[in-house]
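Exercise 7. Given the encoded structure of a 188-residue chain, write a plausible sequence.
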């Protein structure tokens, strides 16, 4: 009986911890992207809409980086991956090189400090919708077909929850692929 009294609290603690870990690992959101326009004239803005829905019973912490008048989700961890019809990444713009950390000496990058990070809750059942201007990051001035994916990893104050883990998290979302056709402008 003594052994049972000692093992029962330990067993309950292990069971509770296992339930919490399982709950934390279960996907608690849906994430999808769509093209604002499937066909865009060369030189025009290429926009991709993102929708993140909280499907859990708890708040999800999102991060916002105030930057001018427009939202810049690429600074908040929503970084597009663009490929052309041959599967190659198009050239990054100056802004794209800065965002992705691939600046060149000729860019003369500013001393960019993003210390105004705001964390806010996405309540259960609510949807966070925003757009990323893909053409601000990539040079999409050449007519052709491009695919866009935007990986999403849950973050807490901008830090991925699985930071330092090598195995894939169940929280990682395999993004859908959006195809955008850039056509010559009328003057071309």
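Solution.
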């Amino acid at each position: 009986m003594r052994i049972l009294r000692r093992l029962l609290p330990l067993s309950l603690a292990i069971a509770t911890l296992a339930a919490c870990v399982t709950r934390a690992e279960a996907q608690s959101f849906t994430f999808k992207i769509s093209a604002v326009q499937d066909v865009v004239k060369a030189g025009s803005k290429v926009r991709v809409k993102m929708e993140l829905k909280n499907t859990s019973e708890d708040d999800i912490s999102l991060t916002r980086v105030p930057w001018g008048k427009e939202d810049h989700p690429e600074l908040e961890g929503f970084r597009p991956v663009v490929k052309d019809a041959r599967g190659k990444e198009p050239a990054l713009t100056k802004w794209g090189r800065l965002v992705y950390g691939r600046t060149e000496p000729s860019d003369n990058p500013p001393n960019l400090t993003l210390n105004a990070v705001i964390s806010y809750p996405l309540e259960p059942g609510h949807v966070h919708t925003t757009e990323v201007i893909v053409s601000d990051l990539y040079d999409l001035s050449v007519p052709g077909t491009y695919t866009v994916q935007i990986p999403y990893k849950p973050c807490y104050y901008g830090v991925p929850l699985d930071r330092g883990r090598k195995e894939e998290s169940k929280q990682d979302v395999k993004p859908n692929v959006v195809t955008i056709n850039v056509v010559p402008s009328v003057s071309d």
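Remark. The chain is about 20% helix and 30% strand. Students should compare their own answers with the one above.
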